[in-house]
Amino acid sequence: MEEKSEQLRLTKKRLKIQKLHIGKKIIDSSQKINQKSEDEEQVELILEEANAYSLRQEVKETAEEFLKDNVFSKLSAYVIAYNKWIG
Question: Cystine design at 72: which of 65, 67, 77, 81 (Cβ 3.0–4.6 Å)?
Answer without folding.
Answer: 77
